[in-house]
Design goal:
Order of helices and strands: HHEEEHEHHEEHHHHEHEEEEEEEHEE
Largest sheet: 8 strands, mixed
CATH topology: Alkaline Phosphatase, subunit A
Structural class: alpha/beta
Number of strands: 16
Shape: globular
Radius of gyration: 23 Å
Helix content: 25-40%
CATH superfamily: Alkaline Phosphatase, subunit A
Length: 450
């Protein structure tokens, strides 16, 4: 009887039940040359970096700058009852003890941490619609599909931990813009963000389906051998190279993943600082402490999507809808800053808190506000930015920028700069032209750099 050697495809089909799949494996893989040294091998920056990693916090829905970090007067005539419906901050406000920066009572813990925070009150949004503005904040392009900032940093710098993805997104719900906010688009697929969903199984299908480790190792060794043999005659096929890399990372994550998401070795003091109850896995506090653990383990770009309970921060009807969302995020964010500082990691970790746009200075609905892209507030901490500093100013109503306008391209250029990247030199050839995160725009906001 003649033995017919099985094809690579047949073997993969028979063994696929033992493989671990996550989004980067299943995505459409763009064509690009795969570096011989390995696509996620750590790469040298263009110049010495101030930060080694980024933790981005995205409050989806549009946080009101007027009711949070740029509060405006609610004196007579600005309570929403007048003909023009002008409405100042609906929450009490007070200055931070050490810096004097006025912040509303929505964020009391962050107000007490303002000496560590660099606040920008003069951001201009990429768009006034949720989806376009959210995608613009992440990719620099509100209208065309482009790689996200996390993907660009993964492409430009690689990762120091080959057992975990270089770019992880913790998102209980997808923000406006969906998966495009962490997509790699035309960059190779292994730079796409891996989504983690808070819960008892943060990454689905991570546990191997076979219970015998040696059997699984034999199966995966066979798959790898077939893959490499298949790749020998297809050196220009980066789609295949990306798929192989995704399988390799998925296998390594069977050990590294569960350990990173296991809080059983965190002491009660740490949990209490974040406001996290033992065994709790679905709160924003869990997201924040996991972000610190991923940062410790060398993940290059970590994003936390603060979607809260629906309808997230999009408070058209009543600004008091902001209260439960702020309460859930305030203490954990302040704790993340404090925790990183205590561990000596804050100086090399750039935290960026952002939203897609602000809210109007006029009332909408009962006591809500509409979308407002002309000005809003964001803040940064660590990573070589000035602590206890405020940049920019809006008018007395919170309607327009008076001084130091910063747009999304400027923000991206500055983040890349702190990571040791010249935003004009981080390019990728696609469709006959060189693309970059900042397109043909962007300036480094040197005013906020320490």
């Amino acid at each position: 009887m003649n033995f017919i050697e099985p094809t690579r495809r047949q073997c993969l089909r028979s063994l696929i039940g033992s493989s671990i799949l996550f989004p980067a494996v299943l995505s459409d893989l763009a064509a690009a040359e795969a570096p011989a040294m390995g696509p996620l091998t750590p790469k040298s920056p263009h110049f010495p970096a101030k930060a080694k990693r980024v933790i981005m916090v995205f409050a989806t829905g549009g946080v009101s700058h007027i009711d949070s970090f740029d509060p405006k007067s609610s004196k007579k005539g600005r309570d929403g009852s007048g003909k023009d419906k002008l409405m100042g901050c609906v929450f009490p406000t007070r200055p931070a003890k050490k810096t004097g920066t006025v912040v509303s009572d929505l964020f009391p813990h962050l107000r007490d941490s303002m000496e560590e925070i660099c606040l920008i009150r003069s951001m201009k949004s990429a768009h006034f619609d949720h989806t376009e503005a959210a995608v613009g904040m992440h990719t620099g392009s509100p209208t065309f599909a482009r790689p996200s900032m996390g993907s660009w940093l993964s492409y430009g710098l690689g990762t120091v931990n080959q057992n975990l993805p270089s770019f992880i997104v913790i998102a209980p719900h997808l923000p406006y813009g969906g998966t495009q906010v962490y997509a790699s688009d035309f960059l190779p697929a292994y730079h796409q963000g891996t989504r983690v969903i808070p819960g008892t199984e943060p990454i689905a299908n991570l546990a191997p389906r076979t219970t015998r480790q040696k059997i699984q190792q034999m199966e995966l060794s066979l798959v790898d051998s077939l893959n490499q043999k298949h790749l020998q005659s297809r050196r220009d096929d980066s789609q295949l190279a990306a798929r192989i890399k995704s399988y390799e990372t998925a296998f390594q994550m069977q050990t590294a993943g569960p350990e990173a998401f296991d809080l059983s070795n965190e002491d009660e003091r740490a949990l209490s600082m974040y406001g996290l109850k033992p065994g709790e896995t679905k709160s924003f506090a869990w997201q924040c402490i996991i972000a610190r653990r991923l940062a410790e383990r060398g993940v290059r770009f970590i994003e936390l999507v603060d979607s809260g309970s629906r309808p997230n921060w999009d408070s058209h009807g009543d600004m008091k809808e902001h209260q439960p969302l702020a309460k859930a995020a305030d203490q954990p964010l302040a704790a993340l800053i404090q925790d990183l500082k205590q561990r000596g990691m804050l100086d090399e970790t750039l935290i960026v808190w952002a939203t897609e746009f602000g809210r109007t200075p006029t009332k909408e609905g009962k006591f809500g506000r509409g979308h407002h892209g002309d000005c809003f507030s964001i803040w940064l901490a660590g990573g070589g930015v000035k602590a206890g500093f405020v940049l920019g100013e809006t008018d007395e109503l919170g309607r327009s920028i008076v001084r130091d306008k910063i747009d999304v391209h400027d923000l991206h250029a500055t983040i890349l700069h702190q990571m040791g990247i010249d935003h004009k030199r981080l390019t990728y050839r696609h469709a006959g032209r060189d693309f970059r995160l900042t397109d043909v725009h962007g300036r480094i906001v040197k005013e906020i750099l320490a």
